[in-house]
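Researcher: Re-running this chain for the archive, since the previous output was lost when a drive failed. Same request as before.
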Amino acid sequence: MSLYLKHYFRAMSHIGWSVTILTTSEAKNSNAFALAAEEFKKRRLHVEVMEDVSQVIYSGFFARIYAQFKWWFILKWNVKRIREQVDFDVVFLPSMDYVMKSMSVFGSPFGDIPFCGFFFQARHHLQSCGFRDKWIARKVQKKIFSRCLSIPTFKKIFSIDHTFIHFAKKAHKTEASKLQFVSDFSEISGDLTKAECRDLLDIDKSAIVVLVYGSLTPRKSVKSLLLALRNINAERQILVLLAGKPNDEFLEEFNETIFELPELNNFINSRFFVHTSSDEYMAFQASDIVWIAYSSSFSGSSGVLFQAAYQGLPVIGSKHGLIGYTVTYNNIGVTCNPEDITDVTKTLESLVNDQQLVRKLGESSKKFGETNSPLSHISTVLKVLES
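Model: Regenerated structure tokens:
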């Protein structure tokens, strides 16, 4: 999201827009926000802080419902307050997922101001598109989505999932003009060579490096990847580079796995912290393959997929969901069932023992990354905001 904001701010500053940012205190004080805001001239950027919604009052389902409705009222009150000081033409939500349910009940929290935004967590289309999905609430989400579309001031819903847009335009023909596909993208920059990055990360130059990047959670199926390495028949040493900040569940699972199988330490280089742009570049530049085989509970896309494509790296993705579709359709890697250790082992072997295949998939990945550029994404969004 910080990458999106950086490009939005850069483009808006370039064309001379005045922008008011409504965000939480935690987000405003984050390094990611500061880096994005640097793209904007201070005289045209106004930042307002709103209350953060804690989800600790209830657990599970009730926490999410509570948060949705409280966010709606916080947005409504703050937009009304800001409007008394600043006149603005349109509201843009980088993510609408946190208020979709409440908007389906109460309508727009922005009064008569037109608004648009991104919807990332669409799932009610998956089964209709041929993806494996056991989600029992798809009818409820379809109803919620339909009610949101009918809000008169709702200009456009953006999605980076073209299968969802294709499905939604057929399912909601009368509101099809409000649906807009926007290509995802990534951006990684640096000038160090692969060998230099490996020296800095203390990685053997002859090893095949499999990168797991970003927020490290159990859904990334790292345990399956590590267990598969026990019996793999590889011609070269394989090293798993774990680069990102782990959550508590991941650390608990990871530590238990290493405690039971200490020999797995031979396959791991762990860098458990939030990566800066230079850290990020080193991680991808030092790697040969990127792991994005997420568990069956996750059926969406992955920003790491586009980062891999930007660097021209092949991926090992999950067979199911949008990741499986994107990897297979664009021939940018191989897929496996991350919950089947035997399948993971065979898939990994097929890739690491065939350098010609790695190069071929890497070339396809690079082409895929080039067609999903920041310019295409940003120009689509800004065109809607201007209209």
